[in-house]
């Protein structure tokens, strides 16, 4: 009985992990590679989720298709936000903290705009692949996996692996990594580091299109739900090692499993404590700090 | 023989798997002008960080004024008489020049000194540096040499027994180097023991009573300046042969 | 005369306190006290936040956690005992102060952005615990009945005819005024003293400060404890003021945004900044809630924060002083 619960929790944790990877990957790029602490990232995901909801409920569009269609919009939004950020914070080498306050303000504004536009009710979407579940019995254990989670997992995996390949195999991807380490070398190669950063940031934000669609397929959405994901995504990105997309994937699965197990055995109301608790733990054990590496930003 | 002020014994420091210092030993005598040289990345700053307490060494011991420094926080070491400058100046940028000096004066000096005494003292240190006209300037407007001198002035304000100067002359012109050298010699004549880290050979050679050379975290030479310049190991380290 | 000049600030505090008391005796409309309380509470929270954020440069996103823990300490006390409001405030301050001491130890390893994220995480962990703690109402929330005809030190404080204050709102308003003035006095004392100078050095360059003899950890621990404790005290008054509290109210992110936005808009480098920001933003918000809508009011808050961090990085006071210098 316990074993059955546990195995079920493990499987849904794994699937949840795939979803977490999809919503963290954007932050892994903007925070990990570009040092831009976009704390509003989860809120943009929720925005993506609401747009998918509107297209689904008003126009009957498939939420995933809606997610793909929104991608260019988020890309443009990313270009715009980075331009503002660069102009007022990075270029003037203002303290990182003012940049953080900027994104905090953006988070808040986006959330309020969503409340004004969509209200505070929970919304969800309908899609053929979001109903029913795949069940069976293995080794005498009744296992069941909702199609909803399975389809999210598949799409999330494709997206994450695609981005992983893009950032590790293409010239642009390698340039974005170099931005993190060696701006000078880049300029010597005739690449404009600012342009690379702007585009990489825009790609990071573009993940909020499909990521948001996945989110609303996965769970019912209300405007403020993004905050709860701050813990998850930052825990995953920091735990995975800043800037490492494959690390992000592994960390996402770990967190997904941990949450799913806690949720099964203690109750779902404890699950925020898991991700934020892990985040606190990771931050506390991170080998840095004043008398360590100068990693103080 | 004058007594030893700072005794570094087998100090080792690793970062992850990388060994930045391996079993470095050295003894600095009271009143000595001690030179520390070595190519970039050889571990000079790391050694200073271990002495000042910014880093904790993994192995070996550092004895200052007869007491083991192990486990002491940087500010406690400062109170015992160790002051340092930073290779890249780190002024308190929201404060004026004189306020920069007031911090160490207020926090290190015996409690009970009034604000008035503190600013007088700060002013007299600025006079030594011939920077009194900049006292009420913001640090953002300072030139490179002024920033270096502020870095030194702030360390002197601690009234240290041992002053460690980490590349205080990098990027300065010949005249400016002489100006800083003169200040350091004067401080030494007033009784301060000084460790100088420097790339400008002329300056270290002229200044130091004794020099050690680090290469890849190991001490490869220790002796009088005139011996050190001729040491083949030092030459190899610098020329990378 | 010179004595008066020397104690100008203290006299100002006293005058403000007397003024607040006089207001409660004039039979003004209850809304004045309701809105006034909110503005004062903002001022207190912003002041508390600024001691850490403005002076030492450590950004705390977890204001809501400190406020919430103060509120829920008061609620637990009300459920357990018949503790007076003053005892609730002290208890809220102590518990939140201890939490502050805890985040003080965070600073050993976490700087800048990481510290800020960790405080946000801490606030959510605390909220989750309270959410699951049925004794204080859990997720459903809890109603508070203010004590009838409360006495403090044998004096009848609130009573329609015989009390010092004729109703509870007036009393809470005065209490909040006293707490706010106390916080401002503490902030100013820190700012003008050795602690404030040490914190400024930490803000500018922590490693250099430590090497210049500043006991950075000790100063940060003192500061996080005071800052957290004051937030907890402001939170402890909340249940009596609202008479119904649930976790989303007590741990509202709005507090985090306000506590950060107010000093940033007013100016973080001096005690006057948070007050100015709180009075400006707090008043705008109170008016906006009544005249427009509470959502639009939040939108204004967010926009003002973004505009100020972009256009006036040193806040209103910084901008003003720069203009005067020219
Ligand atoms: N905090 C640190 N973490 C990891 N490696 C470090 C750290 N500090 C220094 N190092 C490494 O230790 C070596 C010695 O550095 P350093 O002491 O700064 O050299 P120097 O001052 O002689 O130029 C370098 O290879 C440097 O990269
Ligand atoms: Mg060096």
Please tell me about this protein's structure.
The complex is a heterotrimer of chains A (297), B (241) and C (326). The model of chain A is unreliable at 288-297 (pLDDT under 50). With 297 residues, chain A is mostly helical. In chain A, strand 1 (133-138) and strand 2 form a beta hairpin. Chain A is built from eleven helices and two strands; from the N terminus they run ααααββααααααα. Chain A has a two-stranded antiparallel ribbon. Chain B has helices at residues 44-52, 74-80, 97-108, 115-128, 144-156, 174-189, 201-207, 225-230, 232-239, and strands at 4-15, 18-29, 33-37, 59-64, 67-68, 82-84, 162-166, 193-197, 210-215, 218-223. Chain B is an alpha/beta fold and 241 residues long. Chain B is globular, with a radius of gyration of 18 Å. Chain C is an all-alpha fold and 326 residues long. Chain C has one domain (2-254): ABC transporter involved in vitamin B12 uptake, BtuC. Chain C contains 16 helices and four strands. Chain C has helices at 2-6, 8-24, 30-56, 63-80, 85-106, 112-131, 168-192, 194-204, 206-211, 216-236, 238-242, 247-250, 253-266, 272-291, 294-311, 315-325, and strands at 142-143, 151-152, 155-156, 244-245. In chain C, strand 2 and strand 3 (155-156) form a beta hairpin. In chain C, helix 13 packs across helix 14 (272-291) and helix 13 packs parallel to helix 16 (315-325). Chain C starts with a helix and ends with a helix. Classes of the chains: A mainly alpha (297), B alpha/beta (241), C mainly alpha (326). Adenosine-5'-diphosphate is lined by residues 15, 20, 38, 40-46 of chain B.
Summarize the structure.
Chain A contains eleven helices and two strands. With 297 residues, chain A is mainly alpha-helical. The model of chain A is unreliable at 288-297 (pLDDT under 50).
Main-sheet strand order of chain C equals: 1-4
Number of domains of chain B: 1
Proportion of helical residues of chain B: 25-40%
Biggest interface, CB < 8 A: A-C, 46 and 46 residues
Keywords:
heterotrimer; A: 297 residues; mainly alpha; ABC transporter involved in vitamin B12 uptake, BtuC; 11 helices; 4% strand; C: 326 residues; 16 helices; 75% helix; binds magnesium ion
């Amino acid at each position: 009985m316990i074993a059955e619960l546990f195995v079920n929790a493990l499987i849904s944790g794994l699937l949840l992990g795939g979803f977490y990877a999809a919503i963290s990957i954007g932050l892994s790029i903007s925070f990990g590679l570009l040092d831009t602490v976009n704390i509003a990232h989860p809120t943009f995901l929720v925005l993506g989720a609401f747009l998918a909801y509107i297209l689904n409920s008003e126009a009957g569009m498939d939420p995933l298709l809606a997610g793909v269609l929104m991608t260019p919009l988020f890309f443009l939004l990313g270009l715009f936000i980075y331009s503002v950020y660069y102009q007022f914070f990075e270029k003037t080498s203002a303290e990182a903290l003012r940049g953080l306050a900027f994104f905090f303000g953006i988070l808040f504004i986006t959330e309020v705009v969503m409340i004004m536009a969509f209200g505070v009710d929970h919304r969800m979407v309908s899609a053929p692949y979001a109903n029913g579940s795949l069940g069976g019995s293995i080794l005498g254990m009744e296992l069941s996996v909702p199609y909803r989670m399975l389809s999210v997992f598949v799409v999330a995996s494709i997206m994450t692996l695609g981005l992983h390949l893009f950032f590790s195999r293409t010239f642009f991807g390698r340039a974005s990594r170099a931005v993190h380490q060696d701006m000078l070398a880049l300029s010597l190669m005739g690449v404009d580091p600012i342009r690379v950063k702007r585009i990489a940031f825009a790609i990071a934000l573009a993940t909020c299109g499909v990521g948001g669609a996945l989110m609303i397929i996965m769970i019912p959405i209300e405007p403020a739900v993004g905050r709860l994901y701050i813990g998850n995504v930052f825990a995953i990105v920091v735990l995975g090692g800043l800037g490492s997309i494959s690390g992000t994937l592994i960390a996402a699965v770990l967190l997904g499993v941990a949450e799913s197990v806690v949720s099964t055995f203690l109750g779902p109301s404890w699950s925020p404590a898991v991700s934020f608790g892990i985040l606190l733990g990771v931050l506390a054990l991170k080998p840095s700090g004043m008398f360590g590496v100068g990693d103080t930003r | 023989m004058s007594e030893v002020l700072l005794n570094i014994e087998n100090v080792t420091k690793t970062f992850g798997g990388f060994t930045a210092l391996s079993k470095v030993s050295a003894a600095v005598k009271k009143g000595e002008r001690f030179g520390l040289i070595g190519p970039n990345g050889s571990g000079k700053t790391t050694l200073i960080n271990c002495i000042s307490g910014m880093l904790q060494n993994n192995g070996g011991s550092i004895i200052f004024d007869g007491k083991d420094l192990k486990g002491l926080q940087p500010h406690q070491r400062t109170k015992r008489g160790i002051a340092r400058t930073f290779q890249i100046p780190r002024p308190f940028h929201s404060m004026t020049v004189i306020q920069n000096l007031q911090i160490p004066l207020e926090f290190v000096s015996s409690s009970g000194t009034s604000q008035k005494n503190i600013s007088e003292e700060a002013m007299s240190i600025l006079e030594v540096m011939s920077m009194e006209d900049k006292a009420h300037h913001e640090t953002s407007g300072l030139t490179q040499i002024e920033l270096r001198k502020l870095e030194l002035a702030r360390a002197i304000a601690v009234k240290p027994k041992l002053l460690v100067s980490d590349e205080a002359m990098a990027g300065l012109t010949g005249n400016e180097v002489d100006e800083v050298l003169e200040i350091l010699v004067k401080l030494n004549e007033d009784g301060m023991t000084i460790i100088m880290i420097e790339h400008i050979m002329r300056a270290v050679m002229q200044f130091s009573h004794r020099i050690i050379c680090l290469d890849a975290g190991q001490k490869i030479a220790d002796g009088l300046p005139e011996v050190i310049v001729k040491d083949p190991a030092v030459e190899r380290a610098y020329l990378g042969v | 005369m010179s004595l008066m000049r020397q104690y100008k600030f203290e006299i100002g505090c006293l005058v403000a306190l007397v003024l607040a008391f006089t207001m409660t005796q004039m039979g003004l409309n209850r809304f004045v006290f309701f809105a006034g309380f909110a503005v004062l509470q903002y001022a207190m929270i912003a002041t508390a936040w600024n001691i850490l954020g403005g002076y030492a440069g450590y950004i705390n996103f977890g204001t809501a956690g400190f406020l919430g823990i103060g509120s829920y300490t008061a609620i637990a006390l009300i459920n357990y005992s018949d503790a007076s409001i003053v005892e609730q405030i002290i208890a809220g301050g102590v518990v939140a102060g201890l939490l502050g001491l805890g985040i003080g130890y965070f600073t050993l390893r976490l700087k800048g952005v990481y510290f800020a994220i960790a405080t946000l995480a801490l606030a959510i962990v605390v909220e989750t615990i309270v959410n699951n703690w049925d004794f204080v109402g859990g997720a459903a929330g809890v109603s508070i009945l203010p004590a009838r005809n409360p006495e403090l030190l044998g004096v009848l404080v609130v009573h329609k005819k015989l009390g010092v204050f004729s109703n509870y709102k007036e009393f809470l308003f005065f209490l909040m005024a006293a707490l706010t003035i106390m916080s401002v006095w503490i902030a100013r004392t820190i700012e003008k003293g050795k602690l404030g100078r040490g914190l400024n050095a930490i803000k500018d360059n922590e490693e250099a400060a430590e090497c210049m003899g500043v006991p950075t950890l000790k100063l940060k621990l003192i500061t996080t404890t005071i800052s957290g404790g004051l937030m907890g005290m402001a939170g402890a008054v909340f249940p009596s003021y609202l008479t119904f509290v649930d976790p989303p109210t007590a741990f509202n992110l709005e507090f985090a945004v306000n506590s950060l936005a107010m000093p940033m808009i007013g100016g973080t480098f001096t005690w006057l900044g948070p007050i100015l920001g709180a009075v400006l933003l707090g008043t705008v918000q109170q008016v906006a809630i009544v005249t427009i809508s509470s959502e639009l009011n939040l939108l204004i808050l967010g926009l003002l924060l973004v505009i100020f961090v972009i256009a006036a990085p040193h806040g209103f006071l910084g901008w003003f002083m720069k203009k005067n210098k020219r």
